[in-house]
Predict the structure.
Amino acid sequence: MPSTQVKSNMLMENEISMSQKYAKTLVVIFFCMLVTVWAGHASAEIIFEENFDGQADWMPVDNNESCNNVSTTCDGSPPANWDYFRSTEDWHPGEAAYASKQPAQQISNRQFMGASGKSWVRYHESSETNQSTFGDDALLLKHLGAEYDDVYVSFWIKMDPNWQWVSAGSAKFKLVRVFHFDGPDGAANPWDYFSDGDSGPIFIMDLKLSNKWGFRSTYSARCDPQLSDYYCNPSRDWEGDSLWVDSPTFNESLGDGGWHQLQVRVKMNSSLGAKDGIFSVWLDGVLQYSFDNVPWREAGSSESIGWNMIGIGGNTTNWFSDPSNQAEQWYAIDNVIVSTKKQPYEQLAAPGPMPCFELDTPC
C-alpha cells in the first residue's frame, strides 16, 4: 500500500478516534451538567412537602383537643408527618346530637386537587354572635426540625363556593403562620402565644372581609423577645391589612370556587435590632405586599434562632349565621411546600400528580 494511503488511513482512524472521544466527552459533560442542575435543584431545598394523598383519613376524636406533647387534652394523635393539632368546636360528629356535622378539621377526599386525592379540610361553624370574639379554632402544626433564616410556605386553597361572610361590619379568620417555637423541650407549649408565651418571632396571615372596605389580607408580625417586644414596637407598625392587587372582590378571587396558590415568605433580620427582616405574600404568583424593614429579633433575642414551625388554620370571628342554625362552611388546603426558595406558580397549576422526571419538579 502506498505510504500516502497508509498515512491517510491512519489520519482517518485518528479523526474517528478523536470524534469518538469527543462524543464521549460531550456525554460526560452533559451528564455532569445534568447532575449539577439536579444538585442545584436539591440545594433549593424542599424542607417539607405534603399533598395529603398518602394520608389515612383523619379527624380529631372529640370537640376539644389540644395536642401539645406537654400538658394536653389530646385524645387522638396528629396525622402522620405533622406534630401538633388543636381543635375547639361545638358540633363534633362524635356526639350523637351532631352526627350529621363535620369536624373542625379533617384529612379526606371530600376535596382535592387534580383527578383524585385528598386534602386538609377546615370546617368553620357559626357558633357565636359577637364579631369581636375569636372562636371555633382548628390548627395543624409542623415542626421543621431545624432553624431556617429564610422560608417560603406555598399552598393551594379552595373555598366553599357558597362561602358566606357577616352581613354587616367585618370578620376574619387566621389561615397560615410561620414562627419560631422555643420547644420541643418537654416544657414549651406551641399553643402559648403572647408576651408570656413560648413562640416568637411569629408571622400570621388572615383573610378578612369588611363590608365597608372590601376583601383583604391581614398580616401580623410578632417579634422576639416575647416578653419585651412581642408586638415589635408600641405602634405595631407591622400589623395591618392590605387590599389584593387590583382590588378584586371576594367572589372575583378566592371566592370563585377554584383552587388558588398562596405563598408566604419570611426572612429573619440580619442582626439583633436590624430593621431588615422581610415578610411577603403572593396570590397566584402575583406579589400582593412585602415589607423589608421588620426587626424580628430585637436586643435580648438570639441570632441563633430561626423559623422552625409552620401552621395552617386558626380561629375566626366570621359568625355568618345565627348559632341556632348550626351552619358550617369549609375551605380546603392542598399541596403544601415549605422551601428555602420561592415556588413558581406554574409548578402546581396543572392538575394531577407531579412527574418526577422534570428537573424543576421536586419528587
Notes: The radius of gyration is 26 Å. The CA atoms of residues 159 and 254 lie 7 Å apart. Residues 1-43 form one domain.
